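Hey,
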Amino acid sequence: IQLALQSTAGPSSITNKAHQGNNKLCVYANPQRAEKDLDTALALSVRALTFDGPEELRKVHRAYQKQVDQQQQTSNNKDDNNMIARPDLILRIVVPDEHSSVPLGEKFGASPSRFLSLIELAVELGLRIVGVSFHCGSGNHEPTAYQVAIELAGEAMEIVERVQQQSGIEEKCWLLVCG
């Protein structure tokens, strides 16, 4: 993460341009992370995180809450304007990858049947989803695979928008990450 931050430029948070952390953009896209690694990422002001299951959502929530609790313990001012930015979550979805030389769908990504429950869990945990990502598998040269993936991502984004809007979350789901 530190190497990536040293080599990139841009805002530290995709949606919170006013965040006063470092001025780097980094998406921590590892689909399964140790909580210690999440703690480190958040401490370095990395806010864009992928997830594809409930356990990753819960880990992100615990790591973020730990950071908020630490700030509250060390802050003398209850009205401190230096609030810790919430993570910007990116739902990784599974897409058909039978045309790739290295299929990844068996290991990573949420299936369409899990979209709603994962999105609802994120909202329940007070987390926001700003995007959707997918990977069509390494060595995939079939254009229709990307068409199907983009259509599935669009469906996921619509569900995110609807659920977050119904829950009073004003953030838009606007980011599409294609691999």
